Amino acid sequence: MSREPHPELFEELRGNIGRWAPAAGFAEVDAVEAAATSEDGSIEFETPECFGGNRGTGRVRTSGGFCKGNSALLVQAVRLENLLKDRPVGVMKVDVEGHELSVFEGCGSLLAAGRVRDMLFECFLPHPNPVTEHLHACGYSLFQVQVRPTGPFPVLLPMVERGGTNENLLATREPERLMERFRRPGWLCLRGKRVLR
Predict the structure, then answer these.
(1) Where's the Methyltransferase FkbM domain (predicted)?
(2) DSSP state of 58
């Protein structure tokens, strides 16, 4: 499932899904035009002046902006707990420009019951912070994903210097599986191999 609140980007997402569909080995993708947050309903989504040059800068307005000239539109808001219901999730990628805590709060019982195995997300707050504390309380081990010449490598978050900025984080309910997946150096996408699980 893929979720995108901005109408223009959502249409591009649907177009990309349509192009991927005939490719062998790709699972069916459900696209949802909504912002993930802590409550169902509607929410303001802002597009800053720099959005034209970096369309990853759009964000839910409550997160605050860093570019001048922000404009906003009202978009649908969903709790992922209500959207996903009882479906287990192998990997969840969260890129919400400062709105991470609300997204994870909206996961509710999905996280508490461990129905999301792995979550990759950005967090620009020094550790510990409300996001990492929430995930720890839900039973997740947190790792900083460091990029090394030999490829990406996870470092257990308590081992990272406290107060440092941990931009790329990975939360998992299965830390042993995670470390095994990263055991072999290099970039899997450059080996021409597909990951089935």
Answers:
(1) 4-141
(2) -
